[in-house]
Design brief:
Blueprint (H helix, E strand, L loop, with lengths): L1 H6 L11 H22 L4 H13 L6 H14 L15 H27 L1
Helix pairs in contact: 2-5, 3-5, 4-5
């Protein structure tokens, strides 16, 4: 599976993570996810905060794989397709760690933008 990460440019030939590539993927998939969370919860910040807490507290070596599966399940529950580009990111622990970090940061930014739009 690590070959897939190499083929997709997620891991560079040097073995380093292409953080730019991971950021592009998470940026693309997080926007529709966060918007759907916002809409389906009726802009309920309590639910958004609970989800954010899950994203942060489960971002541990022991729970990252489970968290990745939860994220994929949430996409399905909301009727959103999960990205083929993101699909293999759980094949490498360091890639998964950076993916979850980037996804969580992007989620928070999108939610803040949605709050700001609503305030206008």
């Amino acid at each position: 599976m690590k070959n897939v990460l190499l083929d997709k440019g997620i891991i560079l030939p040097s073995g380093e993570i292409s953080k730019d590539k991971v950021n592009l993927v998470t940026g693309a998939i997080t926007q529709p996810f966060a918007e759907m969370v916002w809409v389906t919860t009726g802009d309920d910040m309590e639910t958004v905060n609970r989800l954010t807490d899950v994203l942060v507290t489960m971002n541990t070596p022991a729970d990252r794989g489970k968290l990745f599966k939860i994220i994929k399940m949430l996409y399905g529950l909301m009727g959103l397709p999960f990205s083929e580009e993101a699909e293999p990111m759980d094949a490498d622990p360091a890639v998964l760690e950076y993916f979850i970090f980037s996804f969580t940061a992007d989620f928070g930014e999108v939610i803040q933008d949605l709050i700001a739009e609503e305030a206008e």
